[in-house]
């Protein structure tokens, strides 16, 4: 073997491996197009299609298109993503949907930025002038939910619901993935924010679904589930602020009810409404208990965050 062949072999051995992850449920109309577009953009990548109990020909079409097809029987996108992250081994992971709405040509640029800046996640923020690309209410819902995350967690992403993301190995293998449905993108975003991971955004084109392909996202049901997750993560990750708000509200209510009692007592030295006085006392005690819970849980949360951070740091950073 001459020197050129040795260098070529060494280059191939050290080249980072890329896995394209496509969770799918009834995407027969779009999966072949999606696989073909990522094959053109990332010819060396392994493309995985994880079927989630599809009733159509998604599995057959994906196999014929050359993808590695596996299945996850527990229904829900979060369950599929958790299975993919656990099973697939690679240096870089490209997560997208199987509906041909995301721009596969943006993937190389996102991967390049991940390596150049030593990032753990690059989010493909969606940009589209097509009205058909977003279902009714989705734009408003995305802005509202993104605003909630910004208000609660400070710095955030401009599109927390984007399903187009590039991850490092250490992000994927240290991410617990506890949600079951379309809340998974929000959980991923908050996880990165809480551990202060190096992340970035890249604007990507977002297209309408091909004819015959239908969205599985329910505007109101899944929007409510995402909002509930945000509030639950607020309780778990920022317990002092969460229980402090409850404590403050109870204290304000107690003060409001006690003002008239106090004025009456100062004028007559009598407390004519004993039940109201007992209620005010109870509200103040509840406020103290709530604040105490927040302070105690904050210590627990800090310990959990330290464990997650150490698990994250135990894995190697992305290297080109």
TrEMBL record:
Residues 20-139 form the Glycosyltransferase 2-like domain. The keyword Transmembrane applies. It holds the Pfam family Glycos_transf_2. The keyword Transferase does not apply. The chain crosses the membrane at residues 240-268, 274-297. Keywords: Membrane, Transmembrane, Transmembrane helix. This is Glycosyltransferase 2-like domain-containing protein. It comes from Sphingomonas changbaiensis NBRC 104936.
